[in-house]
Amino acid sequence: MSYIELRNVSKTIKKNPVLKNVTLELEQHKIYGIQGVNGSGKTMLLRAISGLMRTEGKIRIQGRDPVTKGQPLDIGVMIELPGFLREFTGKENLELLALIQKGITEQDIVWALRSVGLDETDNRRYGKYSLGMKQRLGIAQAILGVPQLILLDEPTNAIDAGGVQQIKELVTDLKKQGSTLILTSHDRMFLEDLADEVITMEGGRVICRQ
Ligand SMILES: Nc1ncnc2c1ncn2[C@@H]1O[C@H](COP(=O)(O)OP(=O)(O)OP(=O)(O)O)[C@@H](O)[C@H]1O
After folding, report:
1. Per the database record, which ranges form the ABC transporter domain (predicted)?
2. Is the Cβ atom of 102 under 6 angstroms away from ligand 1?
3. Were both Cys, which of 8, 75, 79, 141 would link to 57 (CB 3.0–4.6 Å)?
4. Which helix (H) or strand (E) segment is 32 a member of?
């Protein structure tokens, strides 16, 4: 059994087919990159895998449907910027999330912040963060507690070159720690450097894996 299995997954939003018969099998402990032009369906694919969106067809993660209730799957997700509280610091925002996520320690929070290049002693409120800092905090919440599966939509589009290098090292480290990662990006070089496999999407379909 594959770690992640999609069979004929399709989704139509307002008469617009955004995923068309996607069939994919993905293995555990790998880094997958998803590339494609604007509107090709990369974000929709991540939404489908995360269980945030219902689809036609079948999706299984370790044999389980990500949408059905029951024991939650251990997934960290950053799709667009999460709704952090503007009046809280980055660390306070993560502490708030830790209240609803089992087993997250202070040490986990500090590790996640430092891993994305944020300083846990920085007293600035989230509302004052630059776009790049917001994106870094978005990644920090997705990697909190090192989930088994981590889905990152365009994790580096607002991050400077030094930050991109840091995110590459982080992603490699997360794989070493046992996570499976699926990342989307417009930056083909970024994905080719990092991913075990690059999946190309076009018009809601997977057209190439290499
Ligand atoms: N809320 C929505 N309602 C209707 N259609 C949508 C919605 N969000 C996205 N779409 C459509 O779904 C299709 C796939 O969009 P998706 O965001 O997955 O593309 P993408 O490959 O991630 O693009 P980008 O590179 O711009 O992020 C597009 O045709 C888009 O117009």
Report:
1. 4-207
2. no
3. 8
4. strand 31-35
CA of 130 to the centre of ligand 1 (A): 25
Minimum CA distance residue for ligand 1 atom 3: 13
Neighbours of 198 (CB within 10 A): 19
> Token digits for 8?
């004929």
Using a 6 Å cutoff on CB, does residue 43 contact ligand 1?
yes
Residue with CA at minimum distance from ligand 1 atom 12 = 18
**Band of pLDDT at residue 30, cut at 50, 70 and 90:** very high
Mean pLDDT of 98-122: 94
CATH architecture for segment(s) 1-74+182-210? 3-Layer(aba) Sandwich (3.40)
CB-ligand 1 contact for 44 (6 Å cutoff): yes
Residue type, 137: L
pLDDT at 142 over 90: yes
User: What is residue 132's predicted lDDT score, i.e. its pLDDT?
Assistant: 95
